[in-house]
Write a structure and sequence with these properties.
CATH architecture: 3-Layer(aba) Sandwich
Largest sheet: 7 strands, mixed
Bound molecules: zinc ion
Strand order of the largest sheet: 1-8-9-7-3-6-2
Number of helices: 5
Oligomer: single chain
Structural class: alpha/beta
Shape: globular
Distance between the termini: 26 Å
């Protein structure tokens, strides 16, 4: 059953340019003036990847759509394999960084010839339908775009516990590594985590707080610093004499977006 969510209900929270190495890249939402009336049913997942072990951890199920065409833009279907690999790496570090407080199961959909169409705000018009129908705790979208920058954002919709993250993949980049690499996925995923676990004492600037809390990463860049993410996900970021972030036991205590216990 289709459920319409008025677009005016959406709290637009775009942002999240991401620095890769020392090259700071910042852009915000891609906006296209289009509204889709209907939402296509997603095909069955092409592949599912999940965090190994951590059997007793709270589990977030994520629906991940990979689009290869958007208007005149497209990229090679060969990209899919690299994206699946990166999603697997992401699933690994979710368990590792959270000290098995959290695990993820990611249903990855190869959208084939289906066009990606942005809504008239920051997200895909069908994101809420997609999440609800799949019973997901969050969504990821990858699609081609014409800019050169690495970028991404996460959008939240009023009244929804789950949110969606977007990873536009530049058709002008010619890099071996998939753009939606594991730490980049983690960055946007952590915006979803911070949004849902709102009663947790997060450090200032939460996902973006690496530098102000003294974390430096010359290898990865300050917005995808694995040492900071690790401490953020295990409650070990020091601030004013306290250790902040989400502790491993708090994931299960608060539940997951599809089954919130204390939202
Ligand atoms: Zn961010």
């Amino acid at each position: 059953m289709a459920v319409r969510v008025p677009l005016k209900m959406r709290l637009l929270v775009a942002c999240l340019g991401v620095a890769i190495s020392s090259a700071l890249v910042s852009t915000c939402a891609v906006t296209a003036p289009e509204v889709l009336a209907e939402t296509p049913d997603p095909p069955a997942p092409t592949v599912t990847v999940s965090t190994p072990g951590c059997a007793s951890a709270a589990t977030w199920r994520i629906g991940y759509r990979v689009y290869f065409t958007s208007g005149e833009l497209s990229f090679s279907p060969d990209l899919f394999e690299a994206l699946v690999h990166e999603a697997g790496e992401f699933a690994n570090i979710v368990g590792e960084f959270s000290e098995c407080g959290l695990r993820v199961e990611i249903d990855i959909f190869n959208m084939g010839d289906t066009q990606y169409k942005a809504g008239n705000d920051s997200g895909a018009p069908d994101e809420v339908h997609f999440v609800r129908r799949g019973g997901y705790d969050g969504a990821f979208y990858v699609f081609p775009y014409s800019g050169r920058a690495y970028t991404g954002w996460t959008s939240y919709t009023t009244g929804e516990t789950a949110s969606s993250s977007y990873f536009p993949h530049s058709v002008k980049q010619n890099r071996d590594q998939a753009q939606a690499w594991s730490l980049f996925l983690m960055h946007e995923f952590l915006h979803q985590v911070v949004h849902f676990y709102r009663h947790v004492s997060w450090p200032a600037d939460d996902v973006h707080g690496a530098i102000r809390h003294g974390y430096r990463s010359s290898e990865y860049g300050e917005f995808v610093n694995p040492n900071y993410f690790r401490d953020l996900m295990s409650g070990k970021v020091e601030e004013d004499g306290k250790l902040l972030g989400i502790r491993p036991e708090q994931y299960a205590y608060y539940g997951v977006p599809s089954q919130p216990l204390r939202y």
